[in-house]
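Recall from the previous lesson that a structure prediction takes nothing but the amino acid sequence as input. Here we apply that procedure to Methyltransferase domain-containing protein from Actinomadura montaniterrae. The sequence below is the only information supplied.
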Amino acid sequence: MSHAPAPNRKAGRALDRTRVFLAWSQQVSEESALNKALDMVRKQLGEREYVVYDWSQQQHIRNIGAEIENQLHQCDLVILEGSSGRPNLAFEVGFARRADIPVIILKQEGTDALPEDFGAPKYLQYPKDASWEANFKRFEADLRRLLDTLESGVLSPGHRDLRRARAEFHHCVQQILDTYPGDHAHLHLMDGLLKAMAGGIREGGQSIITAHPDYYVRMFNALQKRAGVRVKAIADLTDDIEPFWRSSKPDLTTPVGERVFLVDWRLFFEREAELSRYIDTWRKELLRHKDYKIFVATKDDIDPRARHPFSTETVGLNLLLIEDDATFGGYRRSRDSGEQEVFIVEHDEHRCENARVFYNAVVEGAVRFESADDFVTLKRKWLGKHRIGQWDLAWNQQTERRPPAYFDRYDQHVRCWIPLYNELISECAAAVAREILHIRQGTGKPVDLLEIGHGTGSLTALILPWIKHLSEPSEALGDLPPVGHYYAVDRAEQMHNIAREYLGDDVNARVHLLKQIAWQGVRDDLRHDVIFGSLVTHFMLDRDAGRASADTFFKECLRRLRPGGSLVFSDSFGIDESSGMTSEDAARQWRDAMIAHGLTDDYANGFISGNPDMIGAFSCEELREVAAENGLVPVGERSIGSMPFFKVMAFRCPAQGTGAAAVPAT
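The prediction returns the following tokens.
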């Protein structure tokens, strides 16, 4: 974490410097003392690099009233010499009081006091004799202390900028009033808008700001004028509430100590181009800001006990954190309208501590991004941080007995071990769809499905939208749906719970998720038209037990398959003898693919050595032979990419009366 740099007065722009309106009159008893005091004032203002408008040197201007008002509008501090009691003084002090501009009154010792209704501005008396050096030194020291005090308070950048913004706002409203000399609907509409804005400010009081999300960038950028402020932020890129981060040229200019970017974990596996675009943006951000740290995390990396300070009201997990000022902010739903999203900034010591705890929990699960990182480097950091893709030998026991680390990260683990996993399940889903249409066309009846080993629901999630889309015309016409019952079983309670949460409402509407062990728990008095699964055959078959294991598998399938039904399975299958490749060669190719996609050598080697059942699975040739012995006809075999182990296989059971082998009895 770093500090934002303090403002450099010499390099500062004139518009950002303190502007002073200075007015005085020579109608004093001791003009030489006046000039000496003014010289001291000008010297100190110059040392602080204030922009001074000396009104008494602008007497040549024609429209004096308008010029005075214009300059007072623009100033941050008014310094007036009030010894003479000139009439202009009342106007200038009154204007400054109305605009809440600080005022310093210089008075020569021995002159008459100003009226009480001037509002007791800051008075500084200077000697009436220019030769009184000691008294002038005291005046000079008093002036320096007063300016120091004002700089730390009402002349601080925040006070000055907010007063200027208020003046600009007032000027815009006045322009509207000047445009319509008579009553007009536009005036009433603007009145309603301003009252609504004032109500929002009033509701938050002094500690809460409520704003439209579109204002976030300008609000955030304004922080760069706060000297010494330490800014941290979380940008949740999984939520569209901060769309400016999706641009290659974000408008954020505020230097921050560090920022955490939350991304969807799928970017590391499925959307490389999108993550690469972010990487380019982050690299540019590091070049733009000195001493700037960037971290990257996913929501899955956050300790589940950590809570965003806005709790369930938060929109995304975006967070602005300014620890030194006990201020934090983020997006939440409007309490007046649940559909509206608002940006909230809150100043509260206790709640800011909660925000800090949440921020630190997010950083704890993040990896630091360096400018030299590319996609694979960043992915490897993230995988190593959370041990994703590391195979534990204890996982070779029954699935349901594996520890939480296996289930919580399964969808990420499996994409490390099988780099083409998305293509594998997509091809499986497509094959299932083809068999459904084939059976439906032949029978005209609803097709019943049985999925073996549904896991986290990844394959199910691909099939469900297709079924839903296919069913819409039938449902609209009151016809029978193309798909009847859809049963999905898995032996692990943990997988069952993850799939139910992931699939949401569609589970109850279209799928029956069952905690069952294939084949012991799967009823054989129910028949299905398509039985399918992904990454289950290598687990259910035991090649070391010989062909009898495959024979048993197909017989169990046939007990639950209707005549004319289909089997579809995607998995790792052994290398066919006709391929000209050995299992060792294929295993090396598999290992190299895992490493190329981000796994370390140790993780890749650990998986290969820990999963001999996948390396030594039945080959497609062997399964076709055993399937044929059981009366099944192979109708499709598709390789997945260039990885020789992975394929999708489909078999059909001939319909009754076509000479098919008899279905084994229960």
